[in-house]
TrEMBL record:
Domain of life: Eukaryota
SUPFAM superfamilies: PLP-dependent transferases
Domain Aminotransferase class I/classII large: 79-425
BP GO annotations: amino acid metabolic process
Gene3D superfamilies: Aspartate Aminotransferase, domain 1 (3.90.1150.10), Type I PLP-dependent aspartate aminotransferase-like (Major domain) (3.40.640.10)
Coiled coil: none
Pfam family, one: Aminotran_1_2
Keywords: Pyridoxal phosphate
Similarity field: Belongs to the class-I pyridoxal-phosphate-dependent aminotransferase family.
GO MF entries: pyridoxal phosphate binding; transaminase activity
The organism of origin for this protein: Cladosporium halotolerans
This protein's name: Aminotransferase class I/classII large domain-containing protein
Amino acid sequence: MAESFTLSPRGLALASQPSFRAFATPVLQNLYDRTNSPNGNINMGAAENYPMLQSVADFTNSRVKATPNSFSYDEGAWGSLRLRAAMARHMNRFFEPVEEIKPDDLLVANGCMSLCEMLGFSIFSPGHGILLSRPCYSAFESDFGTRAGVKCVYASFNSEDQFSPNGAVKGYEQALEQAESEGTKIRALLLCHPHNPLGQCYPAETLIELMRFCNQRGIHLISDEIYALSTYEINDPNAAPTVPFRSILTIPNIVSHIDPALLHVLYGMSKDLAAGGLRIGTFYTRNSELWRCLSAMNQFHWVPGPADAIATAMLEDEAWIDGFIAQSRQKLGETSALAREMLREKGIPFWEGSRAGFFLWVDLRAWLVKMGKQDPWAAERAINDAFAKAGVYLTSGESMRAEEAGWFRIVTSFDEETLKRGMGRVFKALGI
Ligand SMILES: Cc1ncc(COP(=O)(O)O)c(C=O)c1O
């Protein structure tokens, strides 16, 4: 093994892995701006609620007053009581859980990413596995893997519906059996509900079956509900009916399905409240041991005082929040509809069931053969390179562990001009 004069072996391992920073910096430091940088890159990979960012900035500029306490250590690393009380009220109002969420049921840290990292450290030993669905939000791999050494184990569903009770359990069960037969102990299942990148919600029956499955296997069930309120409607009379979002905490009599010590919910302000830069993530658990464990690490994932003050002000202003969420949903529906129309015009299929999140899961399998490569994943990479050359960035199916090559996640939550221009670059790269 290589050695370093300056680093420990684990430091060297981190320094030697492919650097996302090295890849992302040239892209992110030359971003598209209609007036100042029209030839810059359009980042249709990062899932942000772009149309709503201005409202958050306006609210902060006009309504938030910093106090001396905002710049002190104040109440400590766990998120102020006011923030946790406001977040608990927000979740009670919108999630309508069977059992009321109390401020002390919530841990607050600088983003769900950090919470996943802390969970990786708390629930798993290095080499243990976490079950995830294919396709999957790609950053879980680094959130759980980079420092905690947790292995992501992906369930395939083949032609089964992963949102149906049987399809879901079958897929996760097979993945668990396979991993454990190869020596990887599974400790948890993480469900993206609504799903990223498919934009679909799980019906209550599936949530119940997954709770039972996790309980039987003695593994944790973490429901990542970060897109809970980013649901929208599509004005299409031919569209199949879709399942509305319902938090896992609304299932009656949870104790009859799962030991409450195994059930947890992630939520945050990065998506529904268009504040990814605020770095506010929250974790609901009734597991007091896990709560104490995460609390012991919280000082390494402290929410800064000014961010705590802004988040508290936003959440406490319920009238503003109501208007904001309604407007966000409206815009998500509009931008998604526009993107769907543009894709249909070009004959590009996409996952029709999406009604949540900021993206569409787009099927470019027909373009693979045009890339002149034997290996379909190499062909997918060639399409990705063509996008980069055209100044547009999408998330590839390979990075989202898709079951099959040729799929891409495309973020649609932009203003109309940027969305049209970005889609134009996508079509140009595809030669259409
Ligand atoms: C499903 C999911 N979970 C967690 C995160 C991370 O959120 P945060 O900004 O709170 O770290 C994201 C961000 O894209 C996400 O899509």
